[in-house]
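Recall that a protein's primary structure is simply its ordered list of amino acids. Everything else, from secondary elements to tertiary packing, is in principle encoded there. The following example makes that idea concrete.
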Amino acid sequence: KNVYANKASKYMNIDITRGLKEIDNSLYIVEGEAENNGEAIIEAYQNVNPSVEAVTIKETKHFPHVEAPEQFLEQVGIFFWQSWLFYLSREDSHLFQVVSNSKFVSV
């Protein structure tokens, strides 16, 4: 019933290209290694917006967050940590200095 409603309303064929071009926030795709067209999807997103980052989790397919939750959380944690470091270095550079091994030193 839900799949039919999505298909009938063309929800599954939505074109997000315009929105993807305009996003200036970080975008991170976590893809399953065995997903049929996963690499093509990532490549298409990166062609529209080069700032899209992606990671592939081995031995997963369409639901890597369910199939390998520990690896998924690890990858998402890495992404958020990198985003946080970037934010601090850009917005609060007078408060913190990022040093070589990802530790903060008060300035």
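Residues 30 and 55 are 5 Å apart (CA to CA). Confidence is low (pLDDT under 50) at residues 97-107.
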